[in-house]
Design goal:
The chain is an alpha+beta fold and 237 residues long. The protein contains 10 helices and 5 strands.
Length: 237
């Protein structure tokens, strides 16, 4: 696992508040050439609250006042996506409504040109969404997107743990021997085919066990399953 991510996980696990998680996250973002972030919670497409807003110019209060959640194109895309994505506000406005054009103009006024959005879906239409703004020089290089995605997911998941009565599972689930073996190799970023070769089982069987691991850990994908497992003590850094 990337050392930067390991250090970040350790730092956030030692954090005692969401504010501490946010501070460590912002430090890592600066190292990656990013200028700010905002993390908000939505349900069924409507904003519930901003967990934090660390954009260069205040963003959350205007978003709330103007009810931008009703027209936000990035939110609309995030509701249909489980993967991180780039969103640029320098693109043509021709496909946007007048209200959406106003919103994009607001982002441009704050110099939020290049944004990486990381969605994390939960039950009942819940959506955790964190947007990271790159510096003016351009978007985050694609080779850093995976690391940025992992950092953001860990920041969200640890923040969930620190917020009362919400977040990841409180107790570690019981995994079968095969599920635990597959989880170990997921940590090392092995594909299903590679795990199958290592364990001498079919790729289809690996797919079955990995699916069980993701379900038991209440994760959205392989990466968040690994992060949940680390936090629950099922895996070591």
């Amino acid at each position: 696992m990337n050392r930067t991510l390991e250090d970040f996980i350790e730092s956030t696990q030692e954090a005692h508040s969401v504010e501490e998680v946010c501070r460590v996250f912002q430090q890592r973002l600066a190292d990656l050439g990013c200028s700010g972030s905002a993390y908000a919670r939505f349900r069924s497409g409507s904003l519930e609250r901003f967990v934090w807003d660390r954009q260069p110019i205040d963003f959350a209060s205007t978003y709330l006042d103007q009810r931008w959640d009703r027209v936000d194109p990035a939110l609309q895309r995030a509701m249909k996506s489980s993967q991180p994505f780039f969103w640029q506000t320098r693109i043509s406005d021709q496909d946007y409504t007048p209200r959406q054009q106003d919103y994009i103009a607001e982002l441009r006024a704050r110099r939020m040109w290049h944004v990486v959005m990381t969605p994390l879906h939960g039950p009942g239409g819940a959506l955790e969404l964190c947007g990271v703004t790159a510096n003016d020089t351009g978007p985050v290089p694609k080779q850093r997107l995976s690391l940025l995605h992992a950092l953001t997911l860990q920041g969200i998941l640890r923040s969930q743990e620190l917020m009362p009565s919400e977040g990841a599972p409180a107790a570690a689930p019981s995994l079968s021997k095969r599920e635990a073996e597959c989880l170990k190799w997921l940590r090392d970023s092995k594909s299903n085919w590679e795990i199958g070769q290592i364990l001498r089982i079919s790729e289809k069987t690996v797919e079955f066990h990995v699916g069980n691991v993701i379900r038991k850990l209440k994760a959205e994908n392989r990466l968040s399953a690994v992060l949940n497992a680390i936090r629950l003590g099922l895996l070591e850094l």
